[in-house]
Specification:
Elements lengths: L9 E4 L6 E5 L10 H7 L4 E5 L3 E3 L2 E3 L11 H21 L7 E6 L1 H12 L6 E5 L17 E7 L7 H13 L3 E7 L7 H11 L2
Parallel strand pairs: 2-3, 2-6, 6-7, 7-8, 8-9
Antiparallel strand pairs: 1-3, 4-5
């Protein structure tokens, strides 16, 4: 493509409504992994699904984590900055409605979507965060008023402890976000009932 910011591997599918779903995959997956999730959340939306460009033991991710599992926050910053440039280029190239881009991610991708909202709060209208936790240890006060966010986690998910999720939900509420915390009894996975609930709300 003519725009170098769009050179990263990605999938774009034009929809029939103004919403665009930004799909951010989990560790080891790629830009094709969550296309089924997009159809389940909103079959009429356009789909923009970039590949995470950080490699960890040959697996695609959006940012680096340390051997103990903690996040490299400098790598998050870099990944989010590059992703925001990609989104801005895609808005122009594909003539997207910049006011109606909704993030949907799993695991590393969901953490990236949350970081994107923290660093660039105007880019996303909201997000569905599956298997996600707080991406940064400390977050400055930001304005997320009017942003719809779903945190959809399993109570047995080792990557998203319940206590951390509870505090993160309260913090997002303090930023003005309209956030709903969905819980299922399982582990690190996407619950179909959560997908159905979020999809129903998106059509309101």
């Amino acid at each position: 493509m003519a725009n170098n910011d769009l050179a990263r591997p990605h999938v774009f599918q034009m929809g029939s409504c103004s919403r665009t779903l930004l799909l951010l995959h989990g560790t080891g997956a790629d830009e094709h992994d969550l296309l089924g999730l997009a159809r389940a959340l909103d079959p009429e939306a356009s789909v923009l699904s970039p590949r995470g460009m950080h490699l960890e033991s040959g697996m695609n991710r959006f940012f680096e984590r340390y051997p103990d599992g903690s996040f490299n926050e400098a790598s998050i910053d870099q990944g989010v900055a590059e992703l925001s440039e990609f989104i801005e280029a895609a808005i122009v190239e594909y003539e997207l409605d910049r006011s109606n881009i909704f993030g949907a991610g799993f695991s590393n991708g969901a953490n990236t979507a949350a970081a994107l909202m923290i660093k660039h709060p105007a880019l996303l209208s909201g997000a569905a965060l599956f298997g996600s936790t707080k991406p940064y240890r400390a977050v400055d006060d930001i304005n997320l008023k009017g942003r719809q966010i779903w945190l959809a986690n399993g109570d047995q998910d080792p990557y998203a402890p319940v206590q951390v999720s509870e505090a993160w939900v309260q913090e997002l509420q303090s930023f003005g976000a309209d956030i709903k915390w969905l819980r299922h009894p399982g582990g690190h996975q996407i619950s179909q009932s959560h997908v159905t609930e979020i999809a129903s709300a998106l059509y309101l």
